[in-house]
Amino acid sequence: SIAMTFGTNSNAGLYEAVDWLVASDRVDVVSLSWGENDVGTYNAYASACPAACNASTDGSYEVLGPVLAAAALEGITVLAASGDCGAADGTSGLSTNFPASDPYVTGVGGTQLTVSSSGVYGGEIAWSGNSTGATAPGCQNQGGSGGGYAPFPRPWWQQGTGLPSSPATRGVPDVAADASTAAQVYYGGGPTGVGGTSLATPIWAGFTAIADQYAGHPLGFLNPSLYTILRGSNYSAIFHDIRSGSNGYSAGTGWDPVTGIGTPRLDRLVAAL
């Protein structure tokens, strides 16, 4: 079953929605498509918290962070879109996107998928927002899979996985899925195509729900298991390693700040998890 949860378009709304989901004990997987760049969020947090934090202003880190950690402890998988504005994420420099950048969240980037006329997989490259109409508003000229290096210390599960030694911070995204094909939805009274990492993230939520079903229990926080696969000898059999394309950073072998560790061969990922 799916629990659709709505909040106001604000930090407070995001906190309230996620907090309700975690506290309700109704879900095993949470998919988040709302986010904001880490540059503004981190600067606000550093200047105002913890002395004057509240959920409506600087609450993304100070308030939502503990809720995301609680979700991991309770065995809830939280997935979040890495953003649709490339490595800049709508800033004049470089920035990751929160909450995809949170160490207790699995950040989901995007790819551009090719299939044959008969539906056979034909390969993927990193998603660039101006390669298709399926982009977020305002990102058409700078778009693509969000990613980079977040203002959090590098988690233990990313150690020894080929990430660069500098900066020694959390790398985003962790994984990726098709962001370019565009799903047809009704919006404003008519059909329209929606893509980007806001599409890739619920795709991964579906992957996770299938894996949970086969496991017979919630898999919870995925990142330690995903990076164990990356370090293992069967990585290339379980994931498509996306090596072409750019969001400002370039895709490459293994983990990269565009598509993470890649896209899954789902049957093999389910077996590995």
TrEMBL record:
Species assigned in the record: mine drainage metagenome
Alphabetic keyword roster: Hydrolase, Protease, Serine protease
PANTHER family: PROTEASE S8 TRIPEPTIDYL PEPTIDASE I CLN2, TRIPEPTIDYL-PEPTIDASE 1
Pfam families reported in the protein's UniProt record: Peptidase_S8
Protein name: Peptidase S53 propeptide
GO biological process: proteolysis
Segments forming a coiled coil: none
Protease recorded as keyword: yes
InterPro entries: Peptidase_S8/S53_dom, Peptidase_S8/S53_dom_sf, Peptidase_S8_Ser-AS, Sedolisin_dom, Tripeptidyl-peptidase_I
Alphabetized GO MF terms: serine-type endopeptidase activity; tripeptidyl-peptidase activity
Domain Peptidase S53: 1-273
